[in-house]
Amino acid sequence: MKSNGKKKTKQVALADIPRVGPGTPAGEWLRRYWLAVAAVDEVKDIPKAIKVLGEELVLFRDLEGRLGLVGEHCPHRGTSLEYGDVEERGIRCPYHGWLFDVSGQCLEQPAEPKDSVFCRKVKHLSYAVREQGGLIFAYLGPDQAEPPPLPRYSCLAERGGQRQIEPVRHNDYNWFNFFENSADPCHICILHRHTGYGEQSWGDQFFSYTEMPDFDFVETDYGMKVVMTKPGPAAGTEFVDTMTLALPSIIQVGDTEFVHVKVDAAKLMTEGSQCEHVLFLTPNDDEHFTIFTVNYYTGSDPRFFDKLKEMRAAEVPKEEVKPYDRRKYMPFKGNVRQEDIMSQSTQGTLGARAERLATSDKGVILFRRIIREAISAAGKGERPKGVVSKGREQGIVYYDSFTGVRKV
Ligand code: FES
Ligand SMILES: [Fe+2]
To answer: What is the pLDDT of residues 28-39, one digit of tens each?
Structure first.
């Protein structure tokens, strides 16, 4: 079956991966999944314009509480529904008052003759949309009447712990630079050494410029796992730091509790982390993407999220910016998110940039193969990795990103 896999990969070029518009191979692949499109508290009593996979859309909640996601531009003569009025039965275009329900069906056309039935024939673009645990997901693919199940992600669907949705982040470069960066853990030891990762008990183990951990990359049935290991504190043990990349665009980071909250690591080392830190990425188009970040904490510290917020706020770039320094991303050293933005946004887009891959790019190479196979599977009408099949929707999707000490 291996030769099959190779054949599949050949059909999708590297340059296809970052292109997300309708009709592109990766665009069609991404349209097989539910994608996070907003945090619940971003959708209030006015419409919200969003761009997803190159499509201009408007998200709203009608006064009966139903969520709707419709084409931004009114099918009559194109005015933006972002300025529409939200009503009990849907959204009304401000220009000539056409009213659309959440399914896109036109219900009223006030300027048409009283006996006109034209509105029944007007069905505006609309997509399936659902809520889960503080996020709103949309499905832009085929079978809108019967979309695949929305996976029940543990960080969003579980009860009993504390959940936090971080402020939504918007970036202006290609989404795949961010995604595949997680398949490249050695950058943490180098780019992020300025963040102070290496100045604490856990960081000393994993984020050393000179003594890097061992990296292992494991293909899984939902994507890939990155496993970093170092010799543990006692014979027969090892330190483990894991990160998960789940298709189509989800990252679970295992070490947030160790690295950012910097709790006393002694207990964590035996029990493992109790914080699921999960990023849902959504490409807006080929040059923009949005990050929805969820923290789900099952530990006993009632101030855990406050501490996380305080520690992140304290991670400010410390480098001096010279008065003649006009570089766009200065200063960046000292804040992990700014360090990532500087390096990823200056790379250019995959397929359009020149590259000299090295041994340390092993994870990136494997991950690109996994993605190309998934794109290829979607192109053949097969179910790509990460799409939950019907009948299995009740199960909770866990991405175990174990981080702690374990026996070898
Ligand atoms: S443009 Fe929307 S009703 Fe005319
Ligand atoms: Fe990074």
So the answer is: 999 999 999 999
